[in-house]
Amino acid sequence: MIKKTPETVILLNFGCKDIQKYARAIRSEHIYTMVMPWTTPTQRVMQESPVGLIVCRDAAAPERPAELDAFAKLGVPLMKAEGSFDAAAAIAFCKQTCGCKGLWTVDSFIEEAIADIRAQVGDKTVVLGLSGGVDSSVTAALIHKAIGKQLTCVFVNHGLLRLGEPEQVQKIFRDTFDMNLVYIDATDRFLDKLAGVNEPEKKRKIIGKEFIDVFAEAAAKTNAPFLGQGSIYPDFLESIPLDGNPAGVIKSHHNVGGLPENLKFELVEPLARLFKDEVRAVGRKLGLPEVMIDRQPFPGPSLGVRCVGEIKREYLRMLREADAIFTEELRASGWYSKTWQSFAVFLPVKSVGMQDGQRRYGYTIALRSINTSDAVTAQVVHLPWELIEKVSMRIPAEVEGISRVVYDCTPKPPATIEWE
Ligand code: XMP
Prior knowledge:
Layout: E1 9-13, H1 19-27, E2 33-37, H2 42-47, E3 52-58, H3 65-72, E4 78-83, H4 87-97, H5 106-121, E5 126-129, H6 134-147, E6 151-157, H7 165-176, E7 180-185, H8 187-194, H9 200-222, E8 226-228, H10 233-237, E9 266-268, H11 276-285, H12 290-293, H13 313-332, E10 341-355, E11 358-371, E12 379-380, H14 385-398, E13 402-407
Parallel strand pairs: 1-2, 1-3, 3-4, 5-6, 5-8, 6-7, 8-9, 11-13
Antiparallel strand pairs: 10-11, 11-12
Helix pairs in contact: 5-6, 5-11, 6-11, 8-9, 13-14
Bound molecules: xanthosine-5'-monophosphate (XMP).
């Protein structure tokens, strides 16, 4: 990789829970920050040519005078943020003591990433698994900007996507961006394998394995030596043990997604240095539509874990239609962007309903809306009652086969975010 990023400030993690937040806070001033554990060898730190070091330590974490001393002797300005972190003071340190001018911008990132991708790939080709999620979409747009038709995206429709998703992804990437896009409709293959399977983990395993098989087949056909991947900075940081092995500064690259051993790719990961909101900013700059940029997280097994118990085509149809109504109303009321995840769940539970004066025996849709900072715990969103009521009226009226809608009021814990 060509390293041209000027003004790198390194935050040394001496035991600081919120260090990613601090790294992000300084980046908002267009100063590039990296997080490294205190166990990082000083030579490794110096490889990044840092203009400043910030030692971050929570009050409860032990002092490590020997390590601190080793970093202090490097001849790079060092600031100690111990016990508490004052973002304004840290930014002032970067600007005044380290001389940072704020050169890390979306434009400079894109320019540098394009140069890096071109240098890495040369005249060879890249294959990328496009899910339609934010990270893979922005990765595709960025690699495409760098190497155009040398990139082939593979989009697998496993039959568990939401309403309109396959059409939307094809429209944006094939029609608008004019990318090489291989669209594989593997619906039957997945749903046949899932028929009669009730157990959530078994469903997940089937979906995961089939996905890899279908993608690997398609990727092998492209003969591309490179695999584009949408890993972002927190994916790497979260895998660094705080007091652990310095070799883990960059996560060992085991083809994430578990591609078979015989498929050897070199990875192209242009977003590896970005936080999520920076990924979104890059996506906007590259012209991706807002509906793609502001999308909520969506689990890999997709509607498979939102269709409780056995998956049937008819159940998926009801779930898709109900989910689309919920999303439409969330967007219309401005609540979509105020919630971390909001979605519908299909429950194969029948109850009596009334429509047009007739008794109707139909299935149940649960609505779930949560906020969280890390998905480890989650709070239920107190959506306006009028919104819940409107969605609860629309779904049974518009979705054939549904007679009842319930709102899931359980936080995590004790419940998980997904129903399966
Ligand atoms: P839970 O249900 O465990 O979900 O509270 C936490 C977050 O993870 C997502 N999730 C998954 N994502 N594969 C994924 O890629 C999965 O199997 C999976 N299960 C849950 C979930 O949507 C939530 O954001």
